[in-house]
């Protein structure tokens, strides 16, 4: 009988793991925005162009390949996005505004859309979007940024509204249903985004009822938010690739709901709270009859296993 593998060394708690820190930060950013409407506050991991990379990744690998198993068709309007620790909400606003297509992209889309009206403009995600954060001040700021950025676009209209939902919600303490898991997303979201939220929670000194640091239960919280076949993108700079695999995958011996490694993508290093890192993880939830990158399909009497699993893309 083998002993249970130990987890990576934990990070020392710091102010960045407290709600007070983030409330104070967004209070300052709200004040700055009131003086200068063009000041949208902190763009996460801006020194490494992390936002650009994730936008390109969502529009490329995730949209073109990883969401095909959902069977929703190849339209961005069909997918719902949930942003954990949304901060100023800028990332969702950027996805809503869309990226301009090249002439080649437009030609390909016109060919694919032959016989029906093109329902998208550029690489615009127009499906349901929700940003959540445990800081009320974050949500207030995100709503202001979204209003300023998208107000001029409302006149263009959309069958699936332009409005982005911003909700105060604590992933570690509150039940996701019905506040976050509701409507078409009652069984999970197609894409779940984490831009340093795991990092921040890892710096919290809070413990759960069993005396464990609360971040140790984060994996299960995120998994519950991703629908079968969906994708979760987690960006971290506090943990190495090996450590993230330990926290989100372990040794791969777990039964039932679990995560699996999918692929690696090179990523430039950046810093967070004085700590350098360069890791990005994408979790892909898969289930019966769905393609597995590593061909780890387990046969049962009824075919493929029904237990929810997930894939992880490590970017470093």
UniProtKB/TrEMBL annotation:
Any Pfam family hit: Methyltransf_31
CC terms in the record's Gene Ontology section: cytoplasm
Record keywords, A-Z: Cytoplasm, Methyltransferase, S-adenosyl-L-methionine, Transferase, Transport
Encoding gene per record: EFM4
Ranges of biased composition (kind: Acidic residues): 98-117
Keyword Transferase belongs to the record: yes
Record family assignment: Belongs to the class I-like SAM-binding methyltransferase superfamily. EFM4 family.
HAMAP family in alphabetical order: Methyltr_EFM4
Region (Disordered): 94-123
Localization of this protein: Cytoplasm
SUPFAM superfamilies: S-adenosyl-L-methionine-dependent methyltransferases
Domain of life from the UniProt record: Eukaryota
Record domain Methyltransferase: where: 80-247
N-terminal signal peptide: none
PANTHER family given in the database record: EEF1A LYSINE METHYLTRANSFERASE 2 (PTHR12843:SF5), PROTEIN-LYSINE N-METHYLTRANSFERASE METTL10 (PTHR12843)
GO-annotated biological processes: methylation; vesicle-mediated transport
Functional description taken from the UniProt entry: S-adenosyl-L-methionine-dependent protein-lysine N-methyltransferase that mono- and dimethylates elongation factor 1-alpha at 'Lys-316'. May play a role in intracellular transport.
Protein name, per record: Protein-lysine N-methyltransferase EFM4
InterPro entries, A to Z: Efm4/METTL10, Methyltranfer_dom, SAM-dependent_MTases_sf
EC number: 2.1.1.-
The keyword Ribosomal protein is annotated on this UniProt entry: no
Gene3D superfamilies in alphabetical order: Vaccinia Virus protein VP39
Organism in which the protein naturally occurs: Botrytis fragariae
Sample GO molecular function, one term: protein-lysine N-methyltransferase activity
């Amino acid at each position: 009988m083998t002993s249970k593998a130990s987890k990576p060394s934990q990070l020392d708690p710091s102010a960045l793991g407290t709600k007070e820190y983030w409330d104070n930060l967004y209070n300052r950013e709200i004040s700055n925005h009131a003086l200068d409407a063009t000041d949208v506050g902190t763009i996460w991991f801006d020194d490494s162009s992390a936002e650009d990379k994730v936008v390109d990744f969502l529009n490329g690998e995730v949209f073109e390949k990883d969401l095909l198993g959902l069977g929703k068709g190849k339209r961005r309007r069909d997918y719902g996005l949930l942003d954990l620790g949304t901060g100023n909400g800028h990332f969702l606003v950027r996805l809503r505004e869309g990226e301009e297509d090249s002439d080649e992209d437009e030609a390909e889309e016109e060919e694919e859309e032959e016989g029906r009206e093109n329902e998208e403009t550029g690489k615009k995600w127009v499906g349901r979007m929700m940003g959540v954060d445990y800081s009320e001040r974050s949500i207030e700021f995100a709503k202001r940024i979204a209003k300023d950025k998208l107000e001029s676009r409302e006149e263009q209209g959309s069958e699936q509204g332009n409005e982005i939902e911003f909700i105060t919600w604590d992933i570690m303490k509150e039940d996701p249903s019905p506040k976050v898991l509701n409507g078409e997303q009652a069984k999970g979201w197609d894409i779940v985004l984490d831009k340093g939220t795991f990092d921040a929670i890892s710096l919290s000194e809070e413990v759960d009822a069993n005396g464990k640091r609360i971040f140790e239960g984060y994996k299960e919280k995120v998994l519950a938010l991703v629908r079968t076949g969906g994708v979760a993108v987690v960006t971290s700079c506090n943990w190495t690739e090996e450590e993230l695999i330990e926290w989100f995958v372990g040794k791969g011996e777990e039964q039932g709901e679990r995560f699996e490694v999918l692929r690696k993508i090179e990523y430039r290093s950046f810093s967070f709270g004085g700590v350098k890192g360069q890791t990005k993880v994408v979790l892909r939830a898969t289930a019966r009859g769905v393609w597995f990158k590593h061909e780890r399909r387990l046969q049962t009497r009824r075919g493929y296993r029904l237990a929810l699993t997930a894939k992880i893309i490590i970017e470093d």
